[in-house]
């Protein structure tokens, strides 16, 4: 019997699930994962910062905010050729999704957005899934990205609505949900999750998951980020998140959103191979990897392609091919469009 997709989990139900005996929770999550996904496949993703630094927002955790002295300087936007070259190397390393990030508060209809649209076309032409994270987005802008071939749009809710107000003042929770709603009006898939370790309560984490599972349909990708403590930000002194908390969050997200990809994202670098394996057992089936050993900026480290290749080899996992998620509504459509493209090379 397949686990049904629900959008009406109460907070009490989610709390009871999250607080259940650890091994029971992981066992249940692993069973749900196998109902909806190939347990031997791992989606490997790559982040490219196409416009770094000088973001006007005050997100208390962010290395790219202009409000804090983090050592991350503003840089010129990358050109299309450079982005396509990075994406080509990522594809050769087994990456199936490339996410293009810009340190913007919102998308503006200007020449820089035109250049991002062109980048989306260039990376899509490689036969890769392309995701963008560009800040707030209007419906017409979402449709323009859809026409360019965009596969996914990332816009995290970060935490609960109540806790959110204590870490960000330059954008409201409603603004974030509105962007997700605008993306949902297109065929672009939604990537939305949050961060743990910001000083939030467990209830804030669970309210965040409750918000995400209420999205119809569920976000196709749900990143669970562990705070990367960046010197110079208000969050630099936060205590480490116990790995047990990370695994509980992943397992709970997996059960609440069975068909979604649950992504173990920022902060994975501090987990041992054994701890990562437990996260994968609990339902995480997507990771970010990098040739530069950092994600968007050097302030946020990431495991390297080589380290991840060895980890997947040891665990008997293989990288998932682009457009090969049967649970994503655009998978079959885009797979047919990309049928003549060269498939991604598996991580060896």
Descriptive account of the structure:
The chain is α/β, with parallel strands linked by helices. It has one domain: Aldolase class I (TIM Barrel). Helix content is 38%, strand content 14%. It is built from 12 helices and 10 strands. The chain has helices spanning 11-18, 22-36, 80-92, 111-124, 139-148, 161-167, 173-184, 202-213, 243-256, 273-281, 305-315, 331-337, and strands at 41-51, 97-102, 129-133, 152-154, 189-191, 194-196, 221-226, 261-264, 284-288, 318-319. It is globular. It starts with 10 loop residues before the first helix and ends in an 11-residue tail after the last helix.
How is this structure best summarized?
By secondary structure, the protein is an alpha/beta fold.
Topology overview:
Layout (H helix, E strand, L loop, with lengths): L10 H8 L3 H15 L4 E11 L28 H13 L4 E6 L8 H14 L4 E5 L5 H10 L3 E3 L6 H7 L5 H12 L4 E3 L2 E3 L5 H12 L7 E6 L16 H14 L4 E4 L8 H9 L2 E5 L16 H11 L2 E2 L11 H7 L11
Parallel strand pairs: 1-2, 1-9, 1-10, 2-3, 3-4, 4-5, 6-7, 7-8, 8-9
Helix pairs in contact: 1-8, 2-9, 3-4, 5-7, 8-9
Looking at this protein, list some descriptive labels:
single chain; 348 residues; TIM Barrel; ten-stranded parallel sheet; disordered C terminus
């Amino acid at each position: 019997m397949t686990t049904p997709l629900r959008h009406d989990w109460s907070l009490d139900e989610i709390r009871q699930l999250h607080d259940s005996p650890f091994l029971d929770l992981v066992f249940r999550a692993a069973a749900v994962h196998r109902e909806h996904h190939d347990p031997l496949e791992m989606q490997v993703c790559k982040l490219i910062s196409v416009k770094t630094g000088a973001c006007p927002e005050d997100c208390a955790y962010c290395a790219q905010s202009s409000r804090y002295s983090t050592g991350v300087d503003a840089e010129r936007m990358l050109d299309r050729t450079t982005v396509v070259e990075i994406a080509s190397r990522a594809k050769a390393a087994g990456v199936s999704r490339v996410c293009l990030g810009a340190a913007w508060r919102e998308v503006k209809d200007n020449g820089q957005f035109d250049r991002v649209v062109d980048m989306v076309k260039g990376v899509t032409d490689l036969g890769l899934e392309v995701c963008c994270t560009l800040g707030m987005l209007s419906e017409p802008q979402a449709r323009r990205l859809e026409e360019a071939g965009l596969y996914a749009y990332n816009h995290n809710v970060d935490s609960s609505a109540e806790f959110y107000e204590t870490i960000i003042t330059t954008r409201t929770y409603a603004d974030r949900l509105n962007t997700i709603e605008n993306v949902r009006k297109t065929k672009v898939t939604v990537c939305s999750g949050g961060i743990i370790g910001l000083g939030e309560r467990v209830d804030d984490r669970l309210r965040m998951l409750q918000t995400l599972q209420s999205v119809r349909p569920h976000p196709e990708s749900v990143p669970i980020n562990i705070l990367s403590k960046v010197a110079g930000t208000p969050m630099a002194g936060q205590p480490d998140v116990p790995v047990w908390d990370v695994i509980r969050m992943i397992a709970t997200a997996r059960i609440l959103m069975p068909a979604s990809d649950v992504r173990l994202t920022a902060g994975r670098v501090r987990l041992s191979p054994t701890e990562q394996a437990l996260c994968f057992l609990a339902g995480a089936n997507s990771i970010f990897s990098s040739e530069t050993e950092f994600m968007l900026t050097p302030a946020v480290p990431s495991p390297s392609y080589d380290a991840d290749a060895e980890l997947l080899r040891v665990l008997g996992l293989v990288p998932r091919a682009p457009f090969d998620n049967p649970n994503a509504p655009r998978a079959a459509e885009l797979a047919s469009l990309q049928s003549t493209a060269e498939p991604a090379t598996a991580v060896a």
